[in-house]
Each structure stands twice: as C-alpha cells, then as structure tokens.
Write a sequence for this structure.
C-alpha cells in the first residue's frame, strides 16, 4: 500500500522538524508554499522570525501547471534526490545539498538558499554574475565526467544507468523538445503572429531530419548522468556562488544535452534582452551573455579534458586524441540541443519569461523570431562551427 499523501503546510513543518537534521528543530514554526515551477509543491520552512531554514519539496502525482488530467510518476522525486546526491558527491560546491529524502512520500528536504537568487530573474533585470557561467561549466565538467565511462567502472556504470532510468520524465522531454514543436500539436503555444514562422518550421523536412538525429541521440546515448533540465530557472546565484537545483528530468543521456540546454537558456535571454531593457543596458547585457556562453563551454571543455587526463579509469578512453574527438562530438551535439531549446521555448508548451514577459507586442515577436532563426541556424550549422569564438561570431552575424 502506498504511503503517499500530499503534505499540508503544517505537515511540511512537522516533517522538516523531524528530518531536516537542524540543530533547533522546534524553532521551525511555519511553512510558505512557493512553488512556481511546472511540477511540484515547494515549501519554505520558516522559523519564528520568518527566516527560511530549509526547503521541503514534494512531487505531485500530476503535472502541477496542467492538473490531474496529466498524471506523472511521483518516483521522479526519488530520482531527483538520488541524482542531486550523486552530483553533490562530485561537485559539492555547486549542487544543492539534500538533507533528507523519502521515496514513499516523494519528498525531499533541501538546504535553504534564501541568500541566493534565481539566475533567470537576475538575467531578466540585466544583473551580471561574472563567475556564474564558469561555475556552471565546472559543475557540468565534474558531474558529467565522473558519471561517465571515463571514470565509472563499467559494471557499476551500467547499474547506474538502470538506477536512473527515468522513462516518464524522458518522454516529456522527447515530446515537448523534439516532437511537438515540429508538428501541429494542442500542447504547443505561440503568438498568432508567428503562425507563418511556425508553419515554416513544421514544413521544413531538412530541419525535422536534423532534429530527429538529435532526438535519436537523446533516446539512445547513455554517456553520463545528466541534470536533464538545466535552465537558468534551475540555478541559484549569489556573488561568486552558484547552486544547481531541480534534477527531476535527469537520466543517463548525451553529455551535449546538458551543455546545449544551459547555452540555449543564456541565448534565450540574449534574444529577449532588446525587449526587456533600454537600448544601452540591453547591448551591454547581450555582450555579457555572449561571454557567458563562451566561458561556459571553455570551463566545461577545459575541466573535462583535465579530469580525463588525471582521473580516467579507462586507459583507452583516456587517449588524448580520443578525448579531443569526444569533446568535438559533445560540442556539435550541444549546439544542436541549444537550437532545439531555443525553438521549443518559443513555440512549444513551456515558454520562458525572457521572451514571454516582453510587453511590447511587436518587439516580443521580433525577439521570438530571432530565437527561432538562431535555433535553426545552430541546428543546421553545428558541425561547421569550429569553436566558442566562431560560435560567438556566428551569433553576432545572426542579429
Ligand atoms: C510538463 S513540464 C514542462 C517543462 O517544464 C520543465 O521545466 C521542463 O523543462 C519541461 O519540459
Ligand atoms: Mg525544473
């Protein structure tokens, strides 16, 4: 019999008192439900002064932003907690700390991050965190290298692939990222004035074939334990600090998917900035975003290469020429996945504030078209873009 029940705010407080492992559990007195994502309940657990001391996150048995008509496995909470524990083992500096988790209740308690801010909200305001992209690149290098065949003993790695099989959440990504935007589908949403752009995308056989190749790799390449949804809303920042949360879409997949998703969300901000900020601020922030994309790749690739040289357990995979070849393959994948993220966040089911919060309608459409064109360009040109500087040059040429 399942023990699952949805927690009330009072129960969340009690739960945190019992399980958070805080020095003064009785100081916890109230909970505030703050979940603004698409899927879960999220409670801040407050002390008598109203200061948040821990976060209780519970998976609902359905997609929160849709309702009970879209059921979804609560087992995603176990997978998320276990992924964050693994990522925390390899990159404690940039992974949120899991204090406790319970598979039956689909609940986890995380460290409080109230002294950080959500990166996306900061990017919308044009705030710059000069170390964030490098730190995100470090997180990706550490977590993806240490969970891959470069480092994991082969039998253990196969057991990990099985532990982190996440079919329901992967299907959401498979559908929402790689299929729906390229067909007529009731889940898609876009401004009516983009109808011709959407029709062109859905009629473009060459584009569909290129996206099919990316989808096929997402379906079949168990390279490393991915975060699976690493966008700027799943990242907390403070000056000099960065923490990754929300790994419920994680599974063993192609390394380039995490890199491309992260880059794609930075570029969604790049595309939206002219509609979000005044001319000069937008221009400055766009330059920062291009530098962020460059830094992110260089930190990831440099970090991965150094780890491969120092810590690879497979002596064949550690061959420097092979490491370079592997990183080239990751780069091409990442540019493609960056492109699919740009497209799906513009005309698919789940949008981003970087574009949708632009109030001037014609400016919003211009920014959305830019995101679509940049996405298409990246998908088609991925194999012809040699490095991060060439990427930045291509993005500038694109508008
Ligand atoms: C039904 S979930 C929709 C989207 O929200 C999440 O953040 C993922 O990006 C997913 O694709
Ligand atoms: Mg999320």
């Amino acid at each position: 019999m399942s023990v699952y029940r949805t927690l009330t705010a009072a129960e969340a407080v009690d739960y945190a008192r019992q399980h958070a492992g805080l020095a003064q559990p009785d100081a916890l007195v109230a909970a505030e439900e703050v979940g603004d994502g698409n899927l879960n309940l999220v409670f801040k657990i407050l002390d008598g002064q109203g200061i948040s001391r821990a976060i209780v996150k519970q998976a609902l048995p359905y997609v929160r932003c849709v309702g009970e008509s879209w059921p979804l496995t609560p087992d995603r909470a176990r997978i998320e907690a276990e992924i964050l524990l693994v990522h925390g083992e390899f990159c404690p500096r940039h992974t949120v700390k899991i204090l406790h988790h319970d598979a039956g209740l689909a609940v986890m308690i995380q460290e409080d991050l109230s002294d950080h801010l959500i990166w996306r909200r900061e990017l919308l305001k044009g705030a710059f965190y000069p170390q964030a992209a490098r730190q995100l690149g470090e997180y990706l290098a550490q977590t993806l290298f240490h969970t891959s065949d470069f480092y994991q003993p082969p039998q253990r790695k196969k057991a990990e692939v099985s532990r982190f099989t996440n079919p329901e959440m992967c299907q959401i990504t498979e559908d929402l990222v790689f299929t729906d935007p390229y067909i007529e589908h009731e889940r898609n949403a876009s401004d009516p004035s983009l109808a011709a752009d959407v029709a062109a995308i859905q009629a473009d056989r060459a584009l569909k074939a290129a996206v099919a190749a990316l989808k096929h790799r997402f379906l079949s390449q168990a390279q490393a334990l991915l975060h699976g949804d690493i966008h700027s809303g799943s990242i907390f920042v403070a000056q000099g600090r960065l923490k990754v949360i929300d790994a419920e879409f994680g599974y063993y997949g192609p390394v380039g998917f995490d890199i491309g998703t992260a880059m794609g969300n930075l570029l969604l901000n790049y595309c939206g900035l002219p509609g979000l900020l005044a001319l000069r601020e937008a221009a400055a922030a766009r330059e920062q975003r291009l530098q962020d994309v460059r830094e992110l790749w260089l930190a990831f690739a440099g970090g991965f290469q150094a780890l491969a040289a120092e810590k690879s357990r497979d002596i064949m995979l550690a061959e420097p020429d092979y490491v370079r070849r592997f990183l080239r393959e990751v780069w091409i994948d990442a540019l493609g996945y960056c492109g699919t993220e740009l497209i799906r966040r513009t005309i698919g089911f789940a949008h981003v504030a970087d574009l949708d919060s632009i109030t001037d309608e014609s400016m919003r459409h211009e920014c959305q078209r830019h995101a679509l064109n940049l996405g298409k360009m990246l998908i088609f040109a991925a194999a012809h873009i040699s490095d991060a500087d060439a990427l930045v040059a291509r993005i500038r040429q694109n508008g």
Summary: The radius of gyration is 21 Å. Residues 350 and 398 are 24 Å apart (CA to CA).
